[in-house]
Each structure stands twice: as structure tokens, then as C-alpha cells.
Amino acid sequence: MKRIDLHMHTLMSDGALLPIELARRCASMDFEAIAFTDHASLSNVDRIVPECARDAELAREWGLDVIVGVEITHVPVSRFDEVVAKAKRAGADLVVVHGETISEPVEKGTNRAAVNNPDVDILAHPGFITLEDAQAAADNGVVLEITSRPSHGMTNGHVYRMASQVDAKMVVNTDTHSPGDIITTEKAYAIAMGAGMSRVEAEMCVDRMPREIVRRIRGR
Fold first, then answer.
1. How many angstroms separate the CA atoms of 192 and 190, rounded?
2. pLDDT for 4-37, tens place per residue?
3. Which of 38, 59, 68, 121 sits CB 3.0–4.6 Å from 23 for a disulfide?
4. What CATH number has the domain bearing residue 15?
């Protein structure tokens, strides 16, 4: 199946490419769908969502479905729900949360806030997520990310083990920031199986789950 990646950054935050250039590169690699998920907080969410939406509309000319989302990043846990709500009001169709990766100083409690918020779709690179928080993700329909980004991916195996114990859903994303971060479907399978998944489990995370998320967003 064609590749879907639901965690990608543009120069609207700290990515290297214009949204339309990122879309073009993915279209040329025969992707089915991608999501623009630039880092967002109260300071910029009203700007990046409508600006990215303009290039998402252009990308339809290449047959690429581009979802306009955000990655809620480094916000105080005490204000977390406020920022998520503002992102939804700004028009974000997908809300990714920057989880408690071991490679950045994310505030403790971010994972828990994310898995208990009904407007969060994906908890990205959640580091040493607890079993309790993985259970909350399963209960509330928040999908846990297995990432190809090396600095965040060191805990992929742990995330898989926690998720598999409670039947939490998972998805393989790249957290793309530059052209070299974009991966093929074959590479995505390797990332999933490297975390400990069987081929059948990897198929769910690489192919079926991202399509389910896209169908839900698009209402089809």
C-alpha cells in the first residue's frame, strides 16, 4: 500500500521545507497522505494552521491528501487542555502531542495530559510511558507513536511493550524535519519490527492504523 505519514514538520516551525515542497517530495514518492504537524503553542497556532492549509489545498492537484494538524509542543501541563482547544478552534484536523521523549526536557505529566484529552489523536515519541498511561491511551482512543527519528526512537521497544500489554493502538511516523527524514513503506516496516513487532503487528501500525485515522478525519 501507499505510504501515509502523520507527523511531519515544515518551515512553519523548525522543518527545512515549505509545506508545498514537503508535499511535492511525498507526492513524488507516491505517498497517499501526509499531515503537516508543525510545533504549536499559543504563540503561533492561529498563524500556522491557515497558512499550511493553503498549501494543503494546492497539493490535491498531485493526488496527495494533506491533513493540516499541529504538534502541541512544550506547553505547561497546567495549560495543556487550553492549548489543545485553541488548536482545534484554529482549524487543526489532527492533534499530535510532543510526548515525554528522553532526548528533550518535556514536562513530566505531558503524556498523562495527552492520553486523557479527547481531542488528542496521536501521542508522539512518548519515551518511557507508563503502563497506566498506555491503558488510558487505549481507553480514550489516543494512538501511540513508534518513530523513525533516532533520538526519540531509542524507547520504541518500551513503547511497544507497554502498548501491547493493554492493546493500545500504535502508528509508525517519521517526525520529518528535512528531506532525508522521509522514509519508504519498507523502512517503516523495519522500524516497527525493530521495536519488537511481528509482521502482522507492523502491518497494523504502518498501513491499517494510519488509514483508519485519515478515514475518521475525512469522515469516510
1. 5
2. 999 999 999 999 999 999 999 999 999 999 999 9
3. 59
4. 3.20.20.140
